[in-house]
Amino acid sequence: MAPSVLGRFRVPLIWLVVTVLLLLGPSLGLVDATWTREIILICILALLASSLNLSFGYAGELALGQVALYAAGAYLSGYLALHYTSELLIALPLSIAGAVTVAAVASAVTVRLGGWALAVSTFFLVLVVPDIAGLFPEHLGGFEGLTGIPLPALAGQELQTAEFYLVAVLVTALWLAMFRNLVASRFGESFQVLRESRVLASSLGLSPYALKFHALLIAAVPAGLAGCLFAFLDGFVPPSSFNLHLTITVLAASILGGTRSVYGALLGAMLIQVGPNQLTWFADYAYIAFGVFLIVGGLLFSNGLNGIARSALARLRRTDAPEAAEEEVEIPADTAAMPPMRGEVLEVTDVAKSFGGNKALVGAGFVARPGEITALIGSNGSGKTTLFNVVSGFIRPDRGSVRLGGQELVGRSPHAIGRAGVARTFQTPLVPDDLSVAQTVQSAVFGQRRLSMIESMLRLPRHRSTRSHEAAAARAALTALGLERLGGKEAGALPLGTRRLLELARAIASGPRVVLLDEVASGLDEHELEALEVLLRRLAGAGATIVLVEHNFPLVRRVADRVVVLAQGEVVVDDVPDVVATHPFVQQTYLAGSRHAGEPQLALEEQS
Fold first, then answer.
1. How buried is residue 210: exposed, middle or buried, by Cβ count under 10 Å (0-12/13-18/19+)?
2. What is the pLDDT of residue 437?
3. Per-residue pLDDT for 410 more than 90?
4. 98-134, pLDDT tens digit by residue?
């Protein structure tokens, strides 16, 4: 137990020691006046880089407006100090509020954008900072900037550079600690689900737009803090400081240290700040060297220096420890291991959908009942996936109805349908790379209990009780599928068959009202197919409503209670498996090569 606890808190303990040494540095003679300023600048750049790490590294949203948020914090602090007070206990929270307000206004417009569209639109904020300053010369100092900002004060006591240094180090240390708490909470895991796929986030009942909006707001906090520190560092806030050069510097610090890293922001900031300024011979070639590293590192390493360090440590562990044999998944013999499911009747009626002139669905429908497995079969292009997406809310039909337990689902957003109890798997398993097996399954139950980000960042009691509930739900689902021994392993590194079982565990963890399984048997070997068969029967026996899209007809015939055959968007036949197997259309289209029509031996043939 002790080694695991030590391993879990090793990095925070190292960070605590580093923080204490930095705080005691001036009194111990380890930090002189020159290094005092350099460390304050490192802290400011680290705060900005951590802002980008949160929004881009963890949430996957490339927003480049950190410098504009930084400017908002700096101007607000400078104006406050010039006209009212230089008290840091007031300036710091107001700087955060100013940066978050700017982020909220910008995010309200850009929240539905993504990728380079989001990057360009948020970078526009940086370009207009000097122009905005020029429009308000009386308040923001115009193009000359705010000058004569008084020394900062703390609890009424004026701070000199040495005391201000302590504040900068402490503010940065506290933010990084809260940043770590955030990414190690359900919110950090939700952000990583969003980075993996917006479709996945929606299917788990998480609103992609709400997640993105919150990520951009929280990322504004360190930028506001950095702006406040900058305003009081030299008592001067020029608009020329908030430019393209600083944006590139922040991006370089984030990528160098590692975008998916809490403390990588500090490492990247230190390299960017110290390299050019302290090494004279390096100054002329610094940005060329950083540019080469960013290109090479971006191609070879997915997470900067932090990724390199993790890879090296992983290799050392593999060298020191004997290679463990791949664990085989064993289905529990006890049928009681499967938790009871609260399935509801799913009624899909007269659903039609056209894409231009292509009619994907023409009046399709079926009924799936609790305790039964309803299979949808058909060649590629027959409308199976389109019908699944209609049920999940990712496609809105031209007409028709989808009712679950008597409640209409058509017209609801995908994440609202996910919260209503529709769980699903995907043809290609969607599993976030950086989450463990247990964390992946926990992501399915985030909507069951309310929890605020502040409670998670401060580790308040409700955070601990909620995490215990989520862990228990994940453990129950993993145990039911025989995956409990893999709880601590990296989900993205699992073999295909195990990842499919993991998706199934995630789908059942929240006790859904209907489970949609999209080609869950694809790519499985014979042993894995046998295990899947047992699990599907147990899941149905536990009361689940299961809808299965599958090409493997022998498997469908063994496990399904009803089979719905689709062709060109229409239902050809809807009956029990034995009747479907003898239907003329099915015989002619799919089973023509079988020696015994009544006992087909071939999987459904893929047709375009």
1. middle
2. 92
3. yes
4. 999 999 988 888 777 777 778 788 878 888 887 787 7
CA 517 to chain centre: 23
* Distance (Å, whole) CA 298 – CA 301: 6
What is the pTM assigned to this prediction?
Answer: 0.85
Backbone φ and ψ for 244, nearest 5 degrees, come out as -60, -40
**For 295-338, what is each residue's pLDDT tens digit?**
765 666 667 777 677 777 666 665 554 444 455 566 665 555 67
Res 563: pLDDT: 93
Q: How far apart are CA 219 and CA 226, in angstroms?
A: 12
**Can you say whether residue 406 is alpha, beta or left, with left for phi > 0 and alpha for psi between -120 and 50 degrees?**
left
CA separation (Å) from 13 to 20, 59, 422? 11, 26, 42
Hey, what amino acid is at 85? T
- 3-class DSSP state for residue 89? helix
Q: Give the SS3 label for residue 200.
A: helix
What is the distance between the alpha carbons of residues 294 and 273, in angstroms, rounded to a whole number?
A: 16
CA 266 from centre of chain = 22
Task: Tell me the per-residue pLDDT of 157-178, one tens digit each, with 9 for 90 and over.
Answer: 889 888 999 999 999 999 999 9
Q: Which of 330, 329, 312, 309 is CA-nearest to residue 320?
A: 312
> Which three-class secondary structure state does DSSP give residue 62?
coil
Beta carbons within 8 Å of 246's beta carbon, 6+ residues apart: 67, 70
The burial class, CB within 10 Å (0-12 / 13-18 / 19+), for 298 is exposed
Extract the tokens encoding 164. Answer: 């201000």
Alpha carbons 512 and 568: distance in angstroms, whole number: 30
Residue 490 forms beta bridges with which residues? Answer: 436
Q: Say whether pLDDT at 10 is over 80.
A: no
- The answer to whether 202 and 414 are in contact (CB under 8 A) is yes
Chain center to CA of 62: 13
Mapped onto helix, strand or coil, the DSSP state of residue 45 is helix
CA distances from 217 to 96, 267, 450 (A): 10, 24, 19
**Which residues have C-beta within 8 Å of that of residue 108, sequence separation ≥ 6?**
213
Q: Which two tokens stand for residue 447?
A: 């909507």
- Kindly give the pairing relationship between strand 346-355 and strand 399-404: antiparallel
How, if at all, do strands 153-154 and 157-158 pair?
Answer: antiparallel
d(CA 559, CA 540): 10
| Helix (H/G/I), strand (E/B), else coil: 98 | helix
**pLDDT > 70 in the chain, percent:** 86
What is the per-residue pLDDT for 277? 57
Which token pair is 149?
A: 């900002």
Q: What is the largest distance, in Å, between two alpha-carbon atoms of the chain?
A: 93
pLDDT single digits (tens) 247-273: 888 988 888 888 888 888 998 898 888
The residue behind tokens 């085989």 is: 328
